[in-house]
Design goal:
Length: 303
């Protein structure tokens, strides 16, 4: 398929619409010689004359009329498409599709949700809670929120939380029945509720810190979930000990349904990041969300 000389056709259409080469040059923001050269190049490309130039006006040849009648509507459609595309990039209305885990939602998005929605009434959030690592490009998401260690290297990433605390926890009723472990190795004798990584199809490691060194313990799993929410729910019902981000269970801790244990051995994870592909960096709705979360974190830090 032969490529159309778009730039030359744009110059030709502008000449016809403006009535002269000089007026077309002003409309295009270039000098008259540039317009003349573009027209000449187009005529040579098409191997036919398009315009008859006189001292006072221009006349279209039969070929020129054919090109104008066919190309003008198509060019208007293309110009309209470009305009709408630019508006989409700068728009503060529409739907912002995000992929994130429950932990990312609770830690990074939930604290700013009310503010963001109030400040941006034209933006609708379409959220997908998913513990799996999602290819946001292929799945049609504008952006995602994940731990820094889980991001693809070709993504633009904005840090939106401090490092995250991971804790062991259980219901008071469970601890009354089975006692409270004093060291992570005591977990080997307890009922443990484990989380299975959906992507890797293996149990998430239980890690702790002792004397500055990170260590791993692999207690037997009495119950296994492929959602962190299930681990937290089962633990709150007294079925055993769980392990997850502190932020994912704050409401249970405040209500007394859960309490943290082995706090001296808790460890930190990398922060959450808002991430998105290069082609989405100019989407106004993505920028607004990033600014809102970063601004909120700044306010929290100053307190």
């Amino acid at each position: 398929m032969e490529r159309a000389p778009i730039q030359g056709i744009e110059v030709f259409l502008t000449i016809v619409q403006e009535g002269s080469l000089r007026a077309a040059a002003r409309a295009l923001g270039v000098g008259p010689p540039a317009v003349s050269l573009q027209l000449k190049a187009l005529e040579e490309k098409l191997a036919v004359g398009l315009i008859i130039r006189t001292t006072r006006s221009i006349e279209l040849t039969e070929a020129g009329r054919t090109l104008f009648e066919a190309a003008a509507p198509a060019y208007r459609d293309m110009a309209y498409a470009v305009k709408k595309t630019k508006e989409l990039g700068n728009s503060t209305t529409g739907t912002l599709r995000l992929s994130l885990s429950r932990g990312a939602y609770m830690t990074a998005l939930a604290p700013v949700m009310e503010r963001f929605l109030e400040e941006n009434p034209g933006i609708k959030l379409d959220l997908s809670w998913n513990e799996e690592l999602v290819d946001i490009n292929r799945a049609g998401f504008h952006a995602g929120i994940r731990l820094g260690e889980a991001l693809a290297p070709d993504m633009i990433a904005v840090r939106i939380t401090p490092p995250l605390e991971v804790v062991f926890f259980a219901a008071p009723s469970y601890l009354e029945r089975h006692g409270c472990p004093s060291h992570p190795r005591d977990l080997l004798e307890h009922q443990c509720i484990r989380y299975k990584l959906p992507t890797a199809n293996k149990l998430a490691e239980w890690q702790f810190v002792e004397e500055g060194q990170e260590k791993v313990i692999d207690p037997p799993a009495r119950i296994i979930f492929d959602q962190v929410a299930g681990v937290i729910q089962a633990a709150s019902e007294g079925h055993g000990i769980g392990f997850s981000l502190r932020a994912t269970m704050e409401d249970h801790l405040e209500a007394g349904r859960l309490q943290t244990i082995l706090d001296p051995f808790s460890r930190k994870l990398p922060p959450f990041y808002l991430y998105y592909p290069e082609q989405n960096k100019r989407l106004e709705c993505v920028r607004l969300l990033a600014d809102c979360i970063v601004s909120y974190r700044g306010e929290i830090t100053k307190k």
